């Protein structure tokens, strides 16, 4: 965090730049300088680690899905469904 002295110096610099370029607060507002930033992008979906022939997927987190449990209980290896 900037100290009060640093903040005051920054304000003076900005005022000097505005005076040098003939800028007004209204001109800066019209140019969109004070628009709120865009919202952050939604978090990326977790990568798919396992997929079956029907396209059902699992990221390997949390409880194993029923389609994979059934395959493992039938004797199939979990690694058979690993992607990549």
UniProtKB/TrEMBL annotation:
Q: Which InterPro entries match?
A: H-NS_C_dom, H-NS_C_dom_sf
Q: Which UniProt keywords apply?
A: Plasmid
Q: Name one GO molecular function term.
A: DNA binding
- Enumerate the Gene3D superfamilies for this protein: Histone-like protein H-NS, C-terminal domain
Q: Which domain of life is it from?
A: Bacteria
Domain annotation DNA-binding protein H-NS-like C-terminal: ranges: 50-83
Q: Does the keyword ATP-binding apply?
A: no
The molecule here is called DNA-binding protein H-NS-like C-terminal domain-containing protein
Originating organism = Cupriavidus neocaledonicus
């Amino acid at each position: 965090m900037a100290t009060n002295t640093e903040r005051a110096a920054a304000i003076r610099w900005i005022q000097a730049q505005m005076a040098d370029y003939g800028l007004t607060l209204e001109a800066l507002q019209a140019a969109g300088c004070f628009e709120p930033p865009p919202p952050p992008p939604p978090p990326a979906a977790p990568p798919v680690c396992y997929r079956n022939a029907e396209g059902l997927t699992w990221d390997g987190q949390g409880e194993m899905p029923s389609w994979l449990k059934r395959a493992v209980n039938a004797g199939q290896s979990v690694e058979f469904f690993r992607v990549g």
